[in-house]
Amino acid sequence: MENILLEKEVESQKMRINSDLMELARSRTRITSKIIDLKNFPKMRLISQTGQLSNKTYVLLEGINENGEEGLYILDQHAASERVNKEYFYDYYNNSKKSKQILITPLKIEVSPSEKFFLQSNINEIIKLGFDFQHFGGNTFVLRAVPILMGKSPDLKLIKEIISDITEIGKDKSFSEKLEEIINYLSCHKSIRGGDDMSLHSIRKLIIDLANCKDSFHCAHGRPTLKFFSFKDLDKLFKRII
Fold first, then answer.
1. Per-block average pLDDT, block size 10, for the chain (242 residues)?
2. Cα dist. 78→195, 210, 223, 241 in Å?
3. Where are the alpha helices (DSSP H) in the chain?
4. What is the spatial distance between Cα 32 and Cα 46, in angstroms, rounded to a whole number?
5. How is the chain split into domains, by residue range?
6. Which pTM does this prediction carry?
7. Is residue 83 within 8 Å of 214, Cβ to Cβ?
8. Cα separation of 134 and 144, whole Å?
9. DSSP annotation of 11
10. Which among 27, 56, 158, 207 is most buried, taking Cβ atoms within 10 Å?
């Protein structure tokens, strides 16, 4: 009888050990992946090597602010890209010697009567923004060059959308009065979007381009491109200091 009880106890211990080992293996699997998912604890994800957060909108960086404080910067990738593009278009508009992207195959574009009037009335100003339109006849224009940031082969649908939108923006006032609004529109249109995946190289380039802007800290519409949180603020948050 005692032997039977002993065998049952040994078997029960083996089952508990096996159960514990299986649970440990499951825990290790959950911890060694990018996701940390443990019972009775918030589900967490390790930040990627690039610093881009999982919503692909913000990038987490370490840095030092203008007061010499160390801490964390959060970069809004769309706002930063928009600021870079705004200053690009302004620089392009004010510097006619800037290079353009000549299209290997020019785009022939049919426009509405109101769009034709807008393009013809403002053709020299539009060319100064890098879009080399020429009237082909009737309601047809030919696009022979674009700003370099538009790429080597801009989509016809995109160009027609731009023509339509800037015509709407500029229909009631002179081009010079609407210049900033048109540039803001173009800047937003070609910016990195929230949700776009970014490589370490592209993030580094964006930060360097942003640093070279006249106003590095606001997007084309005035929103912040960067927010800083000092380590001292974090120490206060965690009650390490009062």
1. 52 59 53 73 84 92 94 96 94 80 91 93 92 93 90 85 92 89 90 93 95 94 95 92 82
2. 9, 12, 10, 35
3. 2-32, 77-94, 113-121, 123-128, 156-169, 175-189, 200-211, 231-237
4. 10
5. 2-44, 47-242
6. 0.80
7. no
8. 8
9. H
10. 207
